Amino acid sequence: MTCPALDPALPAAASAARETVRPGAFGQETIAGWNVLRFGSVPSTQDIGATLPPWNAAVAELQTAGRGQWKRTFTSDRGGFYMTAVLPFDGDAMLWRGFALAVGWAVVSTFRAQGIAPLRLRWPNDLMIGGRKAGGILVSQGASNTLCVGLGFNVRNRPWLREPALESGACRLADFAPAGRLGFETLAPALLDAVRLAYLSFSLRGLGGLADLLNQSWGPARTVRLEMAEGAPASEIRGTFRGILPDGDLLLDDPAGGSFPVKAHLVRRLHEC
Description:
The structure is a single chain. By secondary structure, the protein is of the alpha+beta class. The chain has 2 domains: 11-214, BirA Bifunctional Protein, domain 2, CATH 3.30.930.10; 222-272, Roll (SH3 type barrels). The chain has helices spanning 11-17, 45-49, 99-113, 184-214; strands at 27-31, 34-42, 56-63, 81-88, 120-122, 126-129, 132-141, 146-153, 222-228, 236-244, 250-253, 259-262, 267-272. Helix 3 (99-113) crosses helix 4 (184-214). The N and C termini lie far apart (37 Å). The relative contact order is 0.14. The model is unreliable at 1-19 (pLDDT under 50).
């Protein structure tokens, strides 16, 4: 697996990106080698990202139509952090399956190393603190040659005030992170560095080469209920989540102590019990 035209320093990409201007952006600056466009209210940073070339990123103060996996609504009120970073893409979707997991591992590792927040990963794209969700990841194809990596975090906002159903399962970074670590000047470079780390690592090693590192990012073993997609042999599967296999399939333990794999493409949603 190769990474198209990748230069870790990205001087040419950053220089070209500075020429990118988008109506509605109130700010534009180079951060960690990326051209970053800042917006107030947008429907979704993913929509903006789909129009941008590689090594650009769009950051918004709020989203009116934020979305997550399976087009679920992602409540994105003011006080959170919402970003889409755009990467080069070689067009081979099969080779890039599981890239969202690599992004999750990189964000968890970066936040822990920099003392921002004690995150863990929940398969396939949730960023958690303990048993509550602090953020999420959405990877989608933008143009024919770009991938859009969406990252959204509850920072100081309380999304459950708008969506009461979130109260039991959501949290915000402000309740766990040190003071002074949650501003744009800290979060933006940390997250952009994490996206680049994921891109470099996945390009060189693929999902299989990152499986061991990913399996250190889940936190303590938890009992899960897998909501299965249409066509699966069962509508749900229960067990103790142990991680992923090199091919990306899930590994669960049954009550008798045995282990069994579950095909990742047949899992619609993972619920922690």
